[in-house]
Write a structure and sequence with these properties.
Layout: E1 7-9, H1 18-26, E2 32-33, E3 37-38, H2 39-43, H3 47-51, E4 62-67, H4 71-83, E5 88-93, H5 98-101, H6 113-126, E6 131-136, H7 146-155, E7 160-164, H8 178-187, E8 192-195, H9 201-211, E9 215-218, H10 220-224, H11 228-234, H12 242-260, H13 264-270, H14 274-281, H15 289-298, H16 314-320, H17 324-336, H18 340-353
Parallel strand pairs: 1-9, 2-4, 3-4, 4-5, 5-6, 6-7, 7-8, 8-9
The protein binds flavin mononucleotide (FMN).
Length: about 375
């Protein structure tokens, strides 16, 4: 497993489901990562947790992510992941949500570097695959200890370290601090993977180069535009029309169908995901480099509310619509449509039935890693 020179799809609970990861692969993604699995649940052989460790044969470089506080649980979960084909196992040390931190996992581990060091050393010893660690900058702004944590993690034998450039307390309220990421990359000799706020190919290359990180990781950027990977690889914007985007979303619906099966139960399961994805898809706006390069250095594009334009096509307005009830309908028609043109015809009928209101987008910063 080479952790250098690569673009990682971030571990994304709910978003990083297997069909979505396949969609990203189809659009040039290099390294995929699974949704965080609780190690103690894997130990109990929980079916839903074991499913999070599963990869598709197309995923040739897949990292399973685990949340653990006890070495024995982490090792058992790591072994289960490696048995299922994981190329590496990542330990979550950034998850801020209450349920995770109260059990001594996720971001809590940042507050206990000595315990973290022991945990990582045990995982490295017990898991027959590279072990990586994903951290935030610290618990709070006044308690940023990522440099210390990174040192501990390297000395414990981790193969790589991802740094999400925010603290636990910040969640998504502030821009990722790429200077702090750069500092850690300069201090360490293991590969450091930089993560935070990358939405365009030009931001990706600028941050990659300036910060000196070995690799980069994209999360919400991929959820908004799964074709971001190809844009980064080719250093070129791909600004799909509404029609082309709908075809991509239809492709995703068909991948969900292949995964969950084409029956009522499969549909029900897919509908837990597809409408949810539209909360991200509807945020897509074309951002050509000349227009945005300067603005992006001032404020993260991913958190920018863009003014709505006049004169958009019916389909374009439909795809930008933030209403959850509309996302349900769109998901339903994408599931049912036999091909992309049929999906488009159905979407146009939907637009007539449900005239889109284009207004404020919902909360821009969502997620919890
Ligand atoms: C919906 C969602 C789910 C997430 N789930 C996880 C997770 O399971 N494990 C993890 O380490 N981070 C998780 N994260 C955090 C991301 O991996 C990433 O660190 C964060 O979103 C910053 O990257 P971005 O600015 O490119 O989105 C999640 C983020 C989002 C938006």
């Amino acid at each position: 497993m080479n952790f250098r020179g690569r673009v990682f799809l971030a571990p994304l609970t709910k978003g990083g489901n297997l069909p979505f990861r396949r969609l990203c692969l189809a659009h040039g993604c290099d390294v995929t990562m699974g949704e965080m699995a609780y190690a103690y649940q894997v130990v109990k052989r929980s079916k839903s947790e074991l499913a999070l460790l599963r990869k598709h044969p197309e995923e040739t470089c897949f990292g399973a992510q685990i949340a653990a506080s006890r070495p024995a649980d982490g090792i058992a979960a790591g072994l289960a992941a490696v048995e299922r084909g994981a190329a590496f196992v990542d330990l979550n040390c950034g998850c801020p949500i209450h349920d995770v931190v109260k059990r001594g996992m996720g971001a809590t581990l940042l507050q206990r570097p000595t315990q973290l060091g022991k945990l990582v050393a045990e995982l490295v010893k017990g898991i027959p695959a590279p072990v990586s660690v994903k951290i935030r900058l610290g618990w709070t702004d006044s308690d940023r200890n990522a440099s210390e944590v990174a040192k501990v993690v390297e000395e414990a034998g981790a193969a790589a370290l991802t740094v999400h450039g925010r603290t636990r307390e910040q969640r998504y309220s502030r821009a990722a601090d790429w200077d702090a990421i750069a500092q850690i990359a300069a201090e360490r000799s293991i590969p450091v993977i930089g993560n935070g706020d990358i939405l365009t190919w030009y931001e990706a290359h600028e941050r990659w180069q300036k910060s000196g990180v070995a690799s980069i990781m994209v999360g919400r950027g991929a959820l908004i535009k799964p074709w971001l990977f190809r844009e980064i690889a080719t250093r070129q914007a791909f600004e799909p029309t509404a029609s082309e985007r709908l075809a991509i979303y239809h492709d995703f619906a068909q991948r969900l169908k292949a995964h969950f099966r084409d029956d009522e139960k499969g549909r029900e399961r897919a509908m837990r995901f597809l409408p949810w994805h539209f909360e991200f898809f509807c945020r897509y706006r074309p951002l050509s480099a000349p227009q945005w390069v300067a603005a992006a250095s001032q404020h993260p594009l991913i958190q920018t509310r863009m003014p709505e334009e006049e004169g958009l096509s019916v389909l374009e307005r439909l795809l930008r619509d933030p209403r959850p009830e509309l996302h349900q309908e769109l998901a339903g028609l994408l599931w049912a449509a036999t091909d992309a043109p049929a999906a488009e015809a159905a979407a146009l009928l939907l637009a007539e039935r449900m005239p889109p209101v284009v207004g404020e987008l919902g909360e821009v910063a969502v997620g919890h890693g």
